[in-house]
Amino acid sequence: MAQATDAAATEREPELKRVLGPGLLLLFIVGDILGAGVYAVTGDMIENVGGMAWLPFVLAFVVATLTAFSYLELVCKYPQAAGAALYTHKAFGIHFFTFLVAFAVICSGITSASTSSNVVAGNLLAGLHETFSTEDGIGWFDVPTGSTAQLVVALVFMGLLAAINLRGVGESVKFNVILTIIEMTALAIVIVIGFVAVGSGSAEGDIANLVVFEDPNEKGWFLAVTVATTIAFFAMVGFEDSVNMVEETKDPERIFPKMMLSGLGIACLIYVLVVVAVIAVLPLDYDSGSEGILLHVVRLGAPGLPIDEIFPYLTVFAVANTALINMLMASRLIYGLGRQRILPKTLSSVLPVRRSPWAAILFSTLLAVVLIVVVNRLSGNSVVSALSGTTGLLLLAVFAVVNVACLVLKRRRPANGFTAPVAVPVIGATLCLFLVGPWARTDAQMIQYRIAGAMLLLGVVLWVITHFVNKATMGKSRFVDVDRLTYDEQANLGDRVRDRGDDY
Hints:
Layout: H1 2-12, H2 22-34, H3 37-49, H4 54-77, H5 84-92, H6 95-132, H7 147-166, H8 173-200, H9 221-236, H10 252-281, H11 293-301, H12 307-339, H13 358-378, H14 383-412, H15 423-436, H16 447-473, H17 488-499
């Protein structure tokens, strides 16, 4: 009965328009990876391993690429837009486990957006200070740049994202192309300034420092690089979001593998060149404060040019795009879980005119606001480090599950197109789990476990409440259609199927 209903519904529903060719898909993937990561973590990596900060980027690229192989095989087998939650459900069929993976993805989006909000705040205040202050700008007024001012701007920025989200903004590939070009332009400025500064001899750094290893935490070479790799991993995530575009890609079995792997390679190359520029321009012990180290490369590397006045606004564009995509993803997944009664039904409420999921947007925004305030007050290290590290921790755990799911599903269903060698998901899962461990973090970074644990515990509490409400009214908390958690048509179908007592 359920299968017949599913087939009939599939016939009634129109497919998404396939508009993405190789070029647009590559730009989408590169833009999604670049985002806030390189602005947020480059300074932290240098603090942990010195001039060899390029090595953790390469190692993070290796881990991400191994996981990308698993994603590619699974997306060819199951070309739907639900990503990790779908693969987990297909492999294990345990509804609560599927929920945990889905909620971990939601939490990673919220922590990533919260990271971006702090990066935006620091760079925006620095840019406004350069433009308007009496000391460096046109002399109209002084702009505060302290931690309290950054906290206020970060919270206002989250409110702005919520307002945009409530208006019902969807993903636009063409708009993503524009923002990707802005992101790449900002990073190209850093790279060019670095190499010009080296050539002219005006740099305060030393290109020879690229082979200098420093271990301020006294962990030893292996563990120090491991810690830096977990930091760098935040900059390599985003490629997994591209699976949500599979139903809008032309000939995905042929195009997707090449473009995803090419996108990862391009991002890694850009990151390595950025590290080279930073090491060339700045001394290893340089303190960039809370503004972000790339802004200081521009400021010190090209003192005679007004680039340092423009650069902060370019970074705001680039990082804000990442935050908006993260909050769109998180709110839509919360909405989908509410529609399928995995989370409280109230979270699936939508505005009658705009048709945007206002309850899910409000919930995700409030969670981000509380997260920013609490981490700002309690974190022993920087807010950006704590939140970006938590994002990496959550996604490393999700990626480990995806790699294991790929192994399980290899035995059940033959590959349809791309096939990852068996050793790849094994190595990928092992490395991801290794990087999840406490040995891959300093004492100050242990706050990542507390943040991730508190967020997941909140999800479990909501799931338990929903479970008992469902048990009293309509039965168990089970996914009705995990294939498309964020689609109205699928969610409506789920309500109808559940009303008849059928179950996937």
